[in-house]
Design goal:
Strand order of the largest sheet: 13-12-11-14-15-16
Radius of gyration: 24 Å
Oligomer: single chain
Distance between the termini: 39 Å
Number of helices: 10
InterPro entries: MoCofactor_Util/Proc (IPR052698), Xanthine_DH_XdhC (IPR014308), XdhC_CoxI (IPR003777), XdhC_Rossmann_dom (IPR027051)
Shape: elongated
Organism: Uliginosibacterium silvisoli
Protein name: Xanthine dehydrogenase accessory protein XdhC
Largest sheet: 6 strands, parallel
Helix content: 25-40%
Order of helices and strands: HEEEHEEHEEHEEEEHEEHEHEHHEH
Number of domains: 2
Number of strands: 16
Pfam families: XdhC_C, XdhC_CoxI
């Protein structure tokens, strides 16, 4: 998401090239749907670094130096010829973004900030078309999807490209057979890690030339699913927000003191309120909560509100084991069950880091949050898989 947020500002000054990982096979440094921006002087975000990214930047800048340039597709093998040893294959799509589209990109970013998704349709011969869709609709079509197909012979019908997806899940590659008489054996391949005994008809060279085969990319950009409500704008809270804000995350930062926030990135919403406990119920479903205010009494009130809410992904409370024991005693007296108390993480931060500087605490806490997010994502995937099995059985 970082590159999308940067687009309007960068387009004030120059054209850009949007580089998207459209498909991967085997080991690759970033997943399909990952994007980065390249200008003549800088880059935003990354598709994995190394020589892969160096080649992508060189090709993108060559496009910018041309008067006009059509979208392009590259297939890059991450082996010795590229100076890398991942062993996988990456397909990259390059699209030039003109300065004149800045207002449109401001509107698109507003769509994402409003909690909706954008679906991008890009063909090898034309610029992207963007449409608004609901998050639920985007979730039903996971994965950026790249289709490649041989252009039809005159008077014949070409296979139609298909597939939809978002930038948060692996893409699929669909390859269609060459028409009879075109000199190629039939092949069809779909899915990460799929193999075929026949040659692919996508780009089969690491040359920076665009693919000769026609292709179609579908890519959905969704709002961040990593929602964090953080209470407390003191030194530790500010340090945590500074680290978290570099990720694809939306942060609701709450405090009673409105003079502590200062300038914040666009993915941070500052909420100064005399009733911070009311913000617990306003957080999105499956939110992550962090409580580290200046007041133990407020910490206790917020903790009780979060645990009674129940619908949260993870909850962390700053403090010692002694503070936890005292809070558990008081919360139990309020009728909060032991099972709910067990969902409270206190102390916070990954084990083994004893440094108490705010910046060190922030790194330890953010690492713990990322672990919790991975666990939550894995559990949700299992629940969806179980739901599909039950539906199939019915």
């Amino acid at each position: 998401m970082n590159c999308w947020r940067a687009l309007p500002g960068l387009l004030e000054h120059e054209d850009l090239v949007l580089v998207t990982v459209a498909q991967t096979r085997g080991s690759a440094p970033r997943e399909a749907g990952t994007s980065m921006l390249v200008s003549l002087t800088r880059t935003v975000d990354t598709i994995g670094g190394g020589h892969l990214e160096w080649e992508a930047m060189a090709h993108a800048r060559a496009m910018l130096l041309q008067a006009t340039s059509a979208p392009a597709l590259q297939r890059l093998s991450l082996g010795a010829s590229l100076g890398q040893c991942c062993g996988g294959v990456v397909w990259l799509v390059f699209e030039r973004i003109a300065r004149a589209s800045r207002v449109e990109w401001i509107e698109r970013l507003g769509v994402i900030d409003g909690g909706r998704a954008l679906t991008r349709e890009l063909f090898s011969h034309a610029a992207s078309q963007w449409t608004i869709c609901g998050v639920d609709e985007a979730a039903r079509n996971p994965g950026a999807c790249l289709d490649t197909y041989h252009p039809p012979s005159p008077g014949t019908d070409a296979p139609s490209p298909s597939g939809r997806g978002n930038g948060n899940a692996p893409a699929r590659l669909q390859q269609f057979p060459l028409p009879e008489g075109e000199g190629g054996s039939k092949s069809r391949e779909r899915g990460d890690g799929a193999r075929s005994d026949t040659p692919a008809i996508a780009v089969t060279s690491t040359s920076p030339e665009p693919a000769k085969a026609a292709w179609h990319l579908t890519h959905t950009i969704t709002p961040p699913s990593f929602n964090i409500t953080l209470f407390g704008a003191g030194h530790v809270g500010a340090a945590i927000v500074n680290v978290l804000a570099t990720l694809d995350v939306h942060i609701r930062w709450v405090d009673v003191r409105d003079d502590l926030f200062g300038a914040t990135p666009s993915n941070v919403t500052c909420i100064a309120t005399d009733a911070p406990e009311e913000e617990v119920d306003k957080a999105p479903p499956n939110s992550f909560f962090l409580v580290l205010t200046h007041s133990h009494a407020l910490d206790l009130e917020l903790t009780a509100r979060i645990l009674k809410r129940d619908a949260f992904a993870w909850f962390g409370l700053i403090g010692s084991r002694t503070k936890r024991a005292r809070f558990e005693h008081r919360l139990h007296a309020q009728g909060i069950a032991a099972a709910q108390l067990a969902r409270m993480t206190c102390p916070i931060g990954v084990a083994g880091i004893r440094d108490k500087a705010p910046q060190a605490i922030a790194i330890a806490v953010v690492a713990q949050l990322l672990q919790a997010r991975e666990h939550t994502t894995h559990r949700q995937m299992q629940e969806r898989a179980m739901g599909k099995e039950l539906t199939h059985d019915d």
